[in-house]
Structures are given as structure tokens and as C-alpha cells.
Amino acid sequence: MTNNGAKQELYHPTDEVKQNAFVKDDQAVREASYADPVKFWEDRANELLDWYEPWDKAMDNSNAPFYKWFVGAKTNIIHNAIDRHLDTQRKNKLAFIWIAEDGHAVSMSYFRLNREVSKFANVLKSMGVKKGDTVTIYMGRTLEQVIAMLATTKIGAIHSVVYGGFSTEALAERIEDARSRVLVTQDGSFHRGKVVNLKEIANEAVRRSGHVEHVVTLRRTGHEVEMVEGRDFWWHELMNLPVANGSCETEVMDAEDPLFILYTSGTTGKPKGVLHTHGGYQVQVATTLQYVFDLNEQDRWWCAADPGWITGHSYIVYGPLILGATSVIYEGAPDYPYPDRWWRIVEEYGVTVLYTAPTAIRGLMRFGEAWVKRHDTSSLRLLGTVGEPINPEAWRWYHEVVGGGRCPIMDTWWQTETGGFMITPMPTTPLKPGSGTKPFAGVIADVVDEEGNPVKPGEEGYLVLQHPWPGMLRTVWGDPERYRQQYWSTFEKQGWYTAGDSARKDDDGYFWIIGRIDDVIKVSGYRLGTAEIESALVAHKAVAEAAVIGVPDEVKGNVIHAFVILTQGIAQPEEAELKQFVRDEIGPIAVPAHIEFVEALPKTRSGKIMRRVLRATAMGEDPGDMSTLAD
Ligand code: PRX
After folding, report:
1. Which pairing describes strands 2-3 and 11-12: parallel, antiparallel, or unpaired?
2. C-beta 501 within 6 A of ligand 1
3. 526 lines ligand 1 (CB under 6 A)
4. Which pLDDT value is given to residue 3?
5. What beta strand segments (E) does 427-540 contain?
6. Residue 585 has what DSSP assignment?
7. Cα 217 to ligand 1 centre (Å)
């Protein structure tokens, strides 16, 4: 790629990138699709996927905002992700190359994957799991986590994956909300050579939540764990039972049947179970991955996220499998045992496309470019980022040092709720560092003011999605009113979806995401609700009231700063004790970087905490207009 030296950096794709691109003229494809998004998605549904039975209607808006896609069609995403490959040469192709933190690797062909998934599907069935039931999966970054997800889907059940970095209370709440009778977990996971005791957390969460009747535990670390007689079973023992044979029919589903729940943070303390369905989601993930990352039979795709987040669901598990790709999954930390770990993996496994988060790039950048230069990373042809705005400095480092100046960077904006990429370059798009460029084909987005008028170029406004898309969430699990309220009430008259992000567009119509405008903080790309952290803090006996905010951090994007009012008559605890308390309740990702003990919190007369004032205080800035402050 070349920088044309214009005032605002613009990076044009090289001829080689253009020649290889699946979409040769992305601007033309985008524009053609904007006129009729439904037709665009319908064409992709025909082109990229098989269906047991076709749909009667591509989109049904009769009960907005409860939109439906591919109504009447029969499908199962597993058919497209696994079953159909077994009749082709892909049967012998690697679906996954899994690399353990200690360096040993396991390769799994599509044929073998189908056998393992079928076996575990039979195990789940033998435990009474049926179509429509939920299965909670709380594991580390193992192949078995992926197998557990796929097996659940194969039999028509609904998976709810809880990220292995969450702790007891967070897990218990999610099990409870999903009403799962079966939990799949592992003894522990490895992190920088140390064991994270997942089973202990799982056992405590099961005790707190009720509901769970059976726990399947994968042996990964081999340390001693408590197994409850009659409730707990080892993965390897179940997989050796005669009932766990390698053939299992894939359940025929309606396009609109639930596929998975994935909990994410919002404005209240209770996490939202974002619900996705079989039909539309598969179209969204397959199309976006094909158009944006150009996957072909020779590629070795590495999405370095955790399968436990939406990025992993869409672009480690379902998207790549539907396209018949070979994916790399790495279990451990990027800088373990040395800061060249990732670059060693790129070299050893010939990774061609790498997709990660800005925080990981910034973290690795700190170690210096010598760690990258030690390895042959010339196999890379495309790069990607997701999760938060990427600062131009990190963009340039990624582009120059990692990508050798030849790999375009796909800065993909999307959310747990959107299922797949929404604003994103394609390989032929001229790039500006820090911008996700333009809405994907079939996606109608804009930046508007409070009344819904488009703002002028350069001005900040609300990022809205103005037309339904197939991978959209269908509801909040068990709480349709919250779905309507959270996403569709701000621009109810217009029928638009509000993302919760602020953004601006420039003179070329490029989108620039500024950040969240609700009470959500992005820490190292993880999405955390202020209310969740606050309620964990006030659960401590010494804390009467708490307010948390995000403050900018060079590597993590944001870190958490907590303001705490102490309970009268109780001695002030050590800061470390409160931090440990939050870690035990929610997990290490939610631990505040700073805790400040205060006498009062700034509130409006209606009692709402003025986070703007707190932010200014934390950063030593002028808080601005204080006229609405109660006291
Ligand atoms: O604020 C935006 C930010 O991440 C939020 C969605 O978080 P989550 O549901 O956890 O999904 C992350 C992975 C898809 C968005 O509302 N975000 C995501 N991608 C970008 C981004 N901000 C700027 N640029 C991005 N590329």
C-alpha cells in the first residue's frame, strides 16, 4: 500500500491486493446494495449458503422492531458450517489448528470435527438436552469449547457462552437468566503458565444459581478439582461411552429459531442476553467474512479473539467454518513466554490474515519492533482490528511493522448485537487510519442529531442503523421490552436502531467512531457496564455507594476509576481488598485501576450521577457547567 502524501493520510491498495480481492469495486457494490438492502442479503443467502427449504419472505417487518429474516426457510447453521463440507474435498481440509500455551498443537480436519461434534451432541442428548434448551459453556480457549458450541447447535439447543475471564457472580447470574440445566466447563485454563481455576468458580456459581443438574468438565490442566457425585462428569469419560458415537442427525430448524444467547453489558446492572437466530446470522457472518477478508482455500485465518465473545462466535466459529476456511486458535497470552509469541505463530503456521483488537496491538507495540522482525511474517496479506477505535499510531505500527506496509487493515465496526461487521473497509477501499470507512453493503447507517437530522461533516452525533439487517439481534432474552427500549426508543418515529456510540463523518463520507455515549466502558476492548461494577462494589460491606467511570489509558483504551463512599462506622478497607472483591465477583477485567474514597458524589437534582464531573475530577480538568448539580 502506498501513502499518497495527502494532508489526510490515505492508503491505497496495491495492485496485488486489487487482483486478489473477492470484491473488485467495493464502492460500486456498496452503492448498488443501498438501494435495495433486502435484495442484497437475499442474493448472498442464495449464493453462499444451502437451505433445507427456501424462504417465503426474505424480510418481515410486520411486527417492528421484532424483524424476521428468511421467514419460512428451514436450515441449521451446522449444515452450512460442517455437514455440507463432508461431501467435498474440504472433508480432509483442516478446520482448526489449535495451539496450546505450552506450544503443542492439535490439527482438526472437517471430517474429525464432525465426529467430535456429533459425539458431544450425543452426550448432550443423553443428558436430556433438547431443541430449545439452553446450555451454558464456561471454558478457556480450547477446541472443546468450540466443539461444545457446535454440538449444542447441532441438536437445536441454544448455547450461552460465558467468557472464561468472568467470575462467580457474573457466571451465576448468566446461568440463572438463561435457565441452563447443563453447564460445560473445564478444570482450569492456562494463563501465562499459571492455572486459572475455572472449575472452582463454576462450582460456586452452580451453588448460587440453582438450575444446573449436570456439569461436564474437560480435563485441561489436570489439577485436583471438586467433582460432585451424580452431578459432575468428565468430558473424556462421557466421550468414551457407547452412547457417544460419531453419528448424529442435524436438527432441522426454522430460520428464526434461536441459535445462541450472548450476554453483554448495558446501562443497567443486569447483563442483557442478546439473542441471535440460525437463518439471518449465518448470512451476515458468511457474507461479511467473504467480502472483507477475502478468505480463499489457501488462507490460514487467525482471529485472535476468544470464542467466548461475539468476535469469536462469528469469526472463529461460524463464519470461517461456513466458508470452509482453516483457522488458527491460540490458547494463551500474546507475550508468553516471550513478546514474539504471536509473530512466531504467524511464521510457524503461515497465517495469511490476522484479525485482532487495538489493545493487543498497542500492548505488543510496547515491546518494540525487534520482536516482530525476528520472524518471517511475509505470509500475511491482510490485517484487521475490532473492538474500539484504533489510534493512528497503533494503526501505522500494525501496518508498517506487522504488515510490512503491504497489508490493508480492515477496521471493522460492529457489536454483539449486530452479529457481524457493519461499518468496514473491504480490501480495495482506500484507508484512513482510525476510520472504519463506510457502511458495509446492505447496511444503511448515518450520524444524526437528537431529532434525527444528519449532522454536518465533522460534527459529532448518534450512530444509527436505519434499515434492519439479517444478523441483527432478535430480542433480549426473556425481556422484549428492554430490547425495544434500549435499541429502538431513541428514534422510535423513524424506526432506527441506536448503537450507543457517537461518531462523525468526514467530507468523504467516512465514518469515525468516537466512543460510547451510554454507561458502557471499553477496557482492553472488553465491554463493561458501569452499573455492574458499581453493584459489585456496593456488595462489599464497607461500601455505601459507588460510581465508576472510564479514563483514557495508552494501552487498554480505558481503565476504570471508582469513586467510593464508605459505610458509616466501618473502617476503610485497603484498596487491594476492594479490588480483590470485584475480581471475585465479576472477574479480573472489571477490576478498577484506581479507587478514590470520597464523602459525596456529584448528582443532578433527580439523583443521577454526573459522570462528566467525575471524569473531569479524575483527570484534573475543569468540570464545566455545574448548574444542574444538586449540591
Ligand atoms: O463502541 C463500539 C466498539 O465496541 C462496541 C461493541 O462492543 P461489543 O458488543 O463488545 O463488540 C465488540 C466486537 C464486535 C461498539 O458499540 N467498537 C467495536 N468495533 C469498533 C468499535 N469502536 C471503534 N471502532 C471499531 N472498529
Report:
1. antiparallel
2. yes
3. no
4. 42
5. 445-448, 460-465, 475-476, 497-505, 511-516, 520-523, 526-529
6. H
7. 32
Q: CA-based Rg of the chain, rounded to a whole angstrom?
A: 24
Mean pLDDT score, 270-276: 93
Residue 363 CA neighbour count, 13 Å, CB half: 19
Distance between CA atoms of residues 412 and 327, nearest Å: 19
Please report the pLDDT score of residue 270 as a whole number. 82
Tell me whether residue 625 is exposed, middle or buried, using C-beta atoms within 10 angstroms of its C-beta: 0 to 12, 13 to 18, 19 or more.
exposed
CA of 599 to the centre of ligand 1 (A): 35
Nearest CA to ligand 1 atom 11: 415
Peptide bond just before 392 cis, omega within 30 deg? no
Confidence band of 154 (pLDDT split at 50, 70, 90): very high
Read off the pLDDT of residues 479-508 as tens digits, 9 standing for 90 and up: 999 999 999 999 999 999 999 999 999 999
306 lines ligand 1 (CB under 6 A): no
pLDDT above 80: residue 50: yes
What distance in Å separates the CA atoms of residue 549 and residue 547, rounded to the nearest whole number? 7
Pocket test for ligand 1, best of 261, 309, 383, 413 (most atoms within 8 A of CB): 413
Residues 6+ apart with CB under 8 A from 252: 52, 74, 75, 76
Residue 388 CB less than 6 A away from ligand 1: yes
